[in-house]
Amino acid sequence: MTPITEVEGRRLALSNLDKVLYPADGFTKGEVLHYYATTAEALLPHLRDRPLSFLRYPDGPDGQVFFAKNVPPGTPEWVTTAEVPRSEGPARMVLVQNLASLMWAANLVTEFHTPQWVIGAPGSADRLVFDLDPGAPATVVQCCEVAVWLRERLAADGIESYAKTSGAKGLHLLAGVEPVPSERAVEYAKALAVEAEKAMPRLVVHRMTRSLRPGKVFVDWSQNAARKTTATPYTLRARAEPSVSAPVTWEEVEACRSVRQLTFLATDMGVRLREYGDLLGPLVDGGRAGVVP
């Protein structure tokens, strides 16, 4: 029998709570839901007002994995949805605005992916993002080196940046900016990626061509496009273990060369949130937005 629970006055059917989703360490669906419930205070501000794309893996990362943007069948009427413009025609997408809708979405077993704009201003970027993706034998260690360079370069333009793990192999850099057309955000991010490649030609590549990427860090600037999305801070990822796209301090990034790893699991996040709070809080408090030159 499917358990029924109440969240913020909404009745939710939470299914298959004992199902193991991460076989490497026996992490169950119930533990996934507990993770999202206990990180909601930090996670929700990064989801709010941003149309949600779902990467679903209902049978765990070794099962079927599929990406969806449209409102899933069976979505409760109390879950907020909005019409989103697309080149191929408008679509209706989910907005996770509160704990009840977060828990409903988490019950679908999903990674959360969001764009760099909010629903009130589609195609107007209020965040910059760089996805640093290492090509073997490069690792997150090289990503950290590139991240520090990008931090300083962004700072030279008056833009303060923040880092989080991708939850996979790499690292994400995020910065809050005064809203600009997404096309302008793409242009600026690409220019910095090209500049990084010129400054560190043995370490960085700005083109997606896979044959260029072994041993280098691909600085993916394209996720600033209005149609693209990036893994939301604190989302779980569909990996062998319940890894998290976890905000990190710059001290941790700088120490990565000696530590040689930068990975956090769901079980790490309670302690980190108690110690640091939301390291990406400045992105949602509106107080430190830079200006794209």
Q: Which geometry do the CA atoms define?
A: globular
Runs with pLDDT <50, length 5+?
A: none
Distance between the termini: 57 Å
Radius of gyration: 19 Å
Helical element count? 7
Oligomeric state, counting identical vs distinct chains: single chain
Beta-strand fraction estimate = 15-25%
Number of strands: 16
Estimated structural class: alpha+beta
What is the chain-wise order of helices and strands? EEEEHEEEEHEEHEEHEEEEHHH
The major beta sheet can be summarized as: 6 strands, mixed
Q: What share of the residues lie within helices?
A: 25-40%
Organism: Streptomyces hokutonensis
InterPro entries: LigD_pol_dom, MtLigD_Pol-like, NHEJ_LigD
EC number: 6.5.1.1
Pfam families: LigD_Prim-Pol (PF21686)
Structural write-up:
The protein is α+β, with helices and mostly antiparallel strands and 293 residues long. It has 7 helices and 16 strands. It has helices spanning 29-47, 99-107, 140-156, 182-199, 250-259, 269-276, 281-285, and strands at residues 4-7, 10-13, 20-22, 27-28, 53-56, 66-68, 81-84, 91-94, 110-114, 124-134, 161-165, 171-181, 204-205, 217-220, 230-231, 247-248. The strands form 5 sheets. Strands 13-14-10-12-11-16 form a 6-stranded mixed β-sheet. The protein has a 4-stranded antiparallel β-sheet with strand order 6-5-9-15, with helices on one face. A two-stranded antiparallel sheet has the order 1-2. Helix 1 crosses helix 2 (99-107) and helix 3 packs antiparallel against helix 5 (250-259). The chain is globular, with a radius of gyration of 19 Å. The protein starts with a strand and ends in an 8-residue tail after the last helix. The mean pLDDT is 94.
